[in-house]
Amino acid sequence: MDPGGTRRGAPVSAAGGLDLSVVMPVYNEGEGVTATLRALVAVLPPRHEVLVVHDFDEDTTVPVVGRLSADLPTVRLVRNRIGRGVLNALKAGIAASGGRHVLVTMADGSDDYGSVGPMLDRASATGAAVVAASRYMRGGRQVGGPRLKRLMSRTAGLTLHWFAGVPTHDATNNFKLYARDFLDATPIESQAGFELALELTVKATLAGRAVAEVPTTWRDRTAGMSNFRLRRWLPHYLRWYLVAFRRRIRRLVRRLVRRLVRRLRRSA
């Protein structure tokens, strides 16, 4: 994976024994990131790093994280040098990470960090390439958020699970845990932003890698402004949604061809 992030602090490699890297893209989160980072670090295993990825040094998140460094020494700033935007921030954070697993989470406090332990346990038990925090499986739920966005997300997740064979009920949630070997072997083709989670989940499914899930509760952010742009990013989601059905469509076509051939032979 091409490097695109620089860290403040000593570099850490997977060989150093990190169990988990957390990648958190930020954009002018200000003081609001303090509670999120404290809640996150409180539930992480001892050998971890939290990479807070920012696009520019003037981001209001930067001085806040700097002040927190004494209390939270595993939290580090990463400057995204690939190009502005959440997708490049995620790519830069993944490239700079050193853990055997990589957890992606947002800075807005919407993700339930009580799910992190179960996600790590599930990854250990199954060897999954992807472990999704699922809003739509039994025990999961979503609180708040725009109604249309909720409807489309749930519909996409459930139809991918029921009809395309994607093992998780919630392929679009970005709160996911990834195995290092899977990330290293999987090129990122997303072009917009948050569709990255769907891309990686679909690619893991098509590659025959294990995909697991645990229930979670997602709550709409109570402070700040969301950077999610539904109209702009919908075509990019649709691309990976359709790719997910590729294997099923091929199987259906082969089945139809076999039936047609048998009928032609009988009629000959």
Description of the molecule:
The chain has 9 helices and 10 strands. It has 268 residues and is an alpha/beta fold. It has a single domain, classed as Alpha-Beta Complex (Spore Coat Polysaccharide Biosynthesis Protein SpsA, Chain A), CATH 3.90.550.10. Helix 2 links the parallel strand 3 and strand 4. About 3% of the residues have low confidence. Strands 1-4-3-2-5-8-6-9 form an 8-stranded mixed sheet, with helices on both faces. Strands 7-10 form a two-stranded parallel ribbon. Helix 7 runs parallel beside helix 8.
Structure characteristics:
268 residues, two-stranded parallel ribbon, 10 strands, 17% strand, Spore Coat Polysaccharide Biosynthesis Protein SpsA, Chain A, alpha/beta, elongated
Query: Which stretches are poorly predicted, pLDDT < 50 over at least 5 residues?
Result: 7-15
Shape: elongated
- What is the domain tally? 1
Strand content: 15-25%
**Mean pLDDT score:** 89
Topology order in helix (H) and strand (E) letters? EEHEHEHEHEEHEHHEEHH
Distance between the termini: 56 Å
Specify the number of helices: 9
CATH architecture: Alpha-Beta Complex
- Kindly provide the name of the CATH class: Alpha Beta
Q: Radius of gyration from the CA trace?
A: 20 Å
Percent helix among the residues?
Answer: 40-55%
Number of DSSP-assigned strands:
10
Sketch the major β-sheet.
8 strands, mixed
Q: Name the structural class.
A: alpha/beta
Q: Which homologous superfamily in CATH is the superfamily?
A: Spore Coat Polysaccharide Biosynthesis Protein SpsA, Chain A
Spatial sequence of strands, sheet with the most strands:
1-4-3-2-5-8-6-9
CATH topology: the name is Spore Coat Polysaccharide Biosynthesis Protein SpsA, Chain A
